[in-house]
Specification:
The protein is an alpha+beta fold. Helix content is 22%, strand content 26%. A hairpin with a 2-residue loop joins strand 2 and strand 3. The chain binds uracil.
């Protein structure tokens, strides 16, 4: 609050075009601050307290955007990739100028809840290993997932590189029957985020994840109304819970 910035920077951030396009808008007299037409696209303005209009329409300024995406399979959790489509490619144009990035990664073949934001501080807090933000996954697993696996995951299992995982909560929704080709269905909550962690935890007990979807991250639950590839902004409540949870201010 209360920070002055160049008007062309503010308007570029809000998606009104490049700096030179905005200079043109200012020259045309389309931009007003507190009701007065401005002449200088370098003018310092506080977007939180001063009213800005472009072509008569009020600019609803905000610095950050927070998006919940239902990531489909086949896209990578990155902002750029030379080969594959990225999660950022899935976002509607209206969010592009905020330059959101994914908070953490889901594998290319993993679906589900992915948060995208341009709020670096929130992202940092959520990803900090010290914060132990819980992440819950639904998975289908080849083989019979049973009580022994629940106990093993609760104790911690050694991954292929020797790392021993923190206690994790495994809920078996359906015990599989490998003889009849029936996969197990489970939910697993982990408090850390090692590379391919869920797949490697099951690998450590001799089982293979064949389908993986993240359904929760901290207080955020995947919105079941979001189709694969769709996103929506977080509600105020969700954002409040998330910033409370991550121990930081958004
Ligand atoms: N664990 C995995 O193995 N993959 C993911 O995408 C997320 C967690």
């Amino acid at each position: 609050m209360g920070k002055k910035q160049r008007i062309d920077k503010i308007l570029a951030h809000m998606g009104y075009g490049s700096r030179s396009e905005i200079r043109r808008l200012v020259k045309q007299g389309a931009v007003r601050v507190e009701g007065a037409t401005i002449k200088d696209s370098g003018m310092q303005v506080d977007p939180d307290t001063e009213t800005i209009t472009v072509g008569g329409e009020r600019v609803a300024y905000r610095e950050f955007v927070y998006l919940m995406l239902n990531k489909p399979q086949g896209v990578v959790s990155a902002t750029e990739d030379t080969r594959d489509r990225t999660v950022v490619d899935l976002l509607p144009d209206e969010y592009r100028h905020f330059q959101p990035f994914p908070v953490g990664r889901l594998d290319k073949d993993t679906e589900g809840l992915l948060l995208l934001t341009n709020d670096g501080k929130l992202a940092h807090n959520l990803l900090s290993p010290r914060k132990h933000v819980p992440k819950t996954y639904f998975a289908e697993v080849d083989g019979r997932v049973d009580d022994a696996d629940i106990a093993a995951f609760e104790r911690g299992v050694a991954l292929d590189d020797g790392y021993v995982t923190m206690p994790a909560r495994l809920v078996v929704l359906r015990e599989g029957d490998p003889k009849h080709g029936v996969v197990s269905k489970i939910e697993l909550t982990i408090m850390e985020g090692k590379f391919h962690q869920v797949k490697r935890m099951f690998q450590s007990v001799g089982k293979k994840v064949v389908y993986l979807k993240r359904i929760a991250m901290g207080p955020l639950l995947l919105d079941e109304h979001l189709a694969e590839g769709e996103c929506r902004e977080l509600t105020e409540d969700e954002l409040e819970q998330l910033t409370g949870h991550s121990g930081g201010q958004a």
